[in-house]
Amino acid sequence: xxxxxxxxxxxxxxxxxxxxxxxxxxxxxxxxxxxxxxxxxxxxxxxxxxxxxxxxxxxxxxxxxxxxxxxxxxxxxxxxxxxxxxxxxxxxxxxxxxxxxxxxxxxxxxxxxxxxxxxxxxxxxxxxxxxxxxxxxxxxxxxxxxxxxxxxxxxxxxxxxxxxxxxxx
Length: 169
Description:
Layout: E1 6-7, E2 11-15, H1 18-25, H2 30-34, H3 46-60, E3 70-75, E4 80-87, E5 96-103, H4 112-125, E6 132-138, H5 142-150, E7 154-158, E8 162-168
Parallel strand pairs: 5-6
Antiparallel strand pairs: 1-2, 2-3, 3-4, 4-5, 6-8, 7-8
């Protein structure tokens, strides 16, 4: 059964499919219009382009997306993609999934990251096998630190570059 989009107050989270990820990686943003989204010059940005090979590699191993891959973050009012977010795979044997997110610069500081992360955490915890969600961010990324704190995550450890976070079910 195909994974359904997740809807929040302002956003639609739409799971990547292999054909969409491959087309975007080949600079074919016209694929977005084919699935009812508004192409834009600012997405995919460089961070998203850097993630697409990993997304493609994961999706190539699956008959269809499970939801524990990546999702496009779409503004509901105009169907414009403003970023991507998701998981770095399904739950491990301890029931832990790792989350990440990226919002284009023009749409940062508007609460979309928190709205996205909350929706994905709720979606993950809907699955009984998921016991915890983890994340990490650069030490100097104060915006991500605030977002993860608002999400209720607890700092687990930090090193010279990163802070590692965890949220238990």
